[in-house]
Each structure stands twice: as C-alpha cells, then as structure tokens.
Design a protein that fits this description.
Helix content: over 70%
Oligomer: single chain
Strand content: under 5%
Shape: globular
Order of helices and strands: HHHHHHHHHHHHH
Largest sheet: none
Number of helices: 13
C-alpha cells in the first residue's frame, strides 16, 4: 500500500514539474500563432481579440492555474489551427501511434532476445560474428535513410507496399479495413524494428556472456543439462529484470521516435501531429501531446517497476 501511494505521489509530482517546464518553454519560444510572423495579415486588434478569446491576455500564473484546472478535467483546450478540442484531435491520432509502436516493441524484444542469446552461446564463432555485425549495422542505421530505401525498393520499384497513408483511397469494410491498415504500416514497423534491435541485442549478448561465466552454469552443464533447459531455467530468469528496466526507459521515445517516420510515410499519428503543431505554433496541441506523452511514460515506468518487483521480489520497494 505504501509503495502504491509513493508511486502515485511520484507520478503526480513529476506531471506537475513537467507541466511547469513545458508551460514555461511554450511561452519563452520565439514567434507565436497570434503574431504577424506566421500571418502578416494579423492586425493588433485581431491579435488582442484572439488573446482575449483564448485567455492569453491574463498573467502567466493565472493562465497556468486555469490550464491546470482544465487539465484535471481532461480539457486540453482548443486548437489554434483547427478550432477542435485538443483531446478529440489527440484521441483520433493516439491509437495509430500506440499500436504501431507496441507491435514494433514486441517484435524488437523477441528478435533481440533471440539474437543476443544466440550470439552469446556461439561466442567468437561464425554465428556470433554475423549477428554482432548485423546488430552494429542496425545500431548505426538512421531511421529516415532506411525508410527512404525501403520505400524506393518495396513501394516504388516493386509496388508491394503502399507508399504512404493509413488506408487506400477506398478502404474496405470489416476485417479488410484493419488488414489494409496493417499493410500500410508494414514498412514503418519494419524500420522501427530494424533500427531498434541492434542496441538491445548487443546489450542482451553482453548480459548473457556474464551469466554464462557464473558457477551455476558450469555446474548445470557438468550435470549434463541440455542447452534449452539452461536457457529457460538459468539465462532467461536472470535476463528479464534488466531487460524490463531497459524497455521501461525506452518508453519516452515511443512518440518522439515516430515524428520522422510518420512524416516520411504520411501516417496521421501523434508524431506527425506534433511536428505539424510545432511548425504552426499550435501551443494547446503541443502542450496536450507533451502531457499525454509524459503521463503514458510515467505509467509505463510504473508498470515496468511492478513487473520488475514480480520478477525479483528482493528489489527494494
């Protein structure tokens, strides 16, 4: 119970600090949607009228207090550009980004786990060299470059996958609708998996090599235990806690890492929305995305901590 209360207090405190920093950064940023920098036709009277509508003519502390009160009610404000509720705009875009990133995360975890363990068990052999070199290429590969290469090869030249978007011009109904969406997301997910497995596979390889040096591994092999049972009973239980911690730390990059790929592939997700909002100085949408991302990150880290406690009860709470 005390652990849950501390976790809740930590989450609330971090959200407040993030909101303060984000709110201050937005108001310190150069140019404004209300200014003449983005719209030369704006007159002082128009600017004053818009600021009065959005409450931007009030002192900063009053703006922040009003914004936080609305935030507790899940009211992120109104978009400067579209005039829609920010929560509606985010609700339309969030599922695509979450599904795309979660699918990529699952495949990245499984492939990295296999590559790392296989490479360590074949230390300094041909298989280890091939997997290590592949991991290094993955680690060094820029996502935007790989995205353009795959797009040119599989979409433009071969025509196997759509170039951009989430659906065809006439999306089918029923299960075909979701299959069509998945077909459009194949290349972006492939890019995310490829550039993500390198660092995790190398990390798992390093951990596995340390585990293989342990006395209980020598004793298990001396007793004639098969390799598959050594992996299941000794290697995997010792690998999972640090991997879960690393995956928890990678959660902040779910939305931030989608900005480039969603812009290249024309996917209407949170990453593309954040980029367009930043270019258009749509501050309510930017603030809404930042707070939503911070909330998901903190919740994800708390889930990772809970899983870590389940895997290793001796971790101090």
């Amino acid at each position: 119970m005390n652990y849950l209360l501390r976790s809740l207090a930590y989450t609330v405190l971090m959200l407040v600090l993030i909101s303060l920093i984000s709110f201050g950064a937005m108001h310190a940023a150069p140019n404004s949607f209300m200014g003449s920098e983005l719209n030369p036709n704006m007159t002082p009277e128009n600017i004053a009228h818009l600021k009065a509508i959005y409450g931007l003519d009030k002192p900063l502390w009053e703006q922040y207090t009003s914004w936080m009160i609305n935030l507790v009610k899940l009211d992120f404000g109104i978009s400067f550009v579209s005039g829609q509720e920010v929560r509606d705009v985010i609700a339309d875009r969030l599922p695509v980004t979450l599904w795309m990133n979660m699918i990529a995360l699952v495949f990245t975890f499984l492939l990295s786990l296999w590559m790392g363990i296989s490479s360590a068990l074949s230390y300094e052999k041909k298989k280890d060299v091939i997997l290590s070199q592949f991991s290094l290429i993955s680690f060094a590969m820029p996502s935007y470059y790989l995205a353009l290469v795959l797009m040119m090869g599989f979409s433009v030249t071969l025509g196997w996958f759509p170039i951009s978007g989430l659906h065809s011009l006439e999306p089918p109904e029923g299960l075909g609708y979701y299959w069509d969406m998945l077909w459009h997301l194949m290349l972006p997910i492939a890019v995310m998996v490829f550039v993500g497995i390198g660092s995790l596979a190398l990390y798992i390889r390093s951990l596995t090599l340390e585990i293989l040096k342990s006395d209980y591994i020598y004793f298990a092999r001396a007793r004639g235990i098969e390799e598959k049972w050594i992996i299941r009973r000794y290697i995997l239980p010792n690998l999972l806690p640090p991997i879960v911690t690393m995956l928890g730390l990678s959660l902040p990059g779910l939305i931030g890492g989608s900005v480039i790929l969603e812009s290249i592939f024309g996917i209407e997700g949170m990453g593309q929305l954040f980029y367009l909002s930043a270019m258009g100085r749509d501050y309510p949408v930017i603030m809404g995305i930042l707070m939503m991302s911070a909330f998901l990150t903190l919740i994800g880290n708390q889930i990772a901590d809970a899983v870590l406690l389940k895997l290793n009860p001796f971790v101090k709470r």
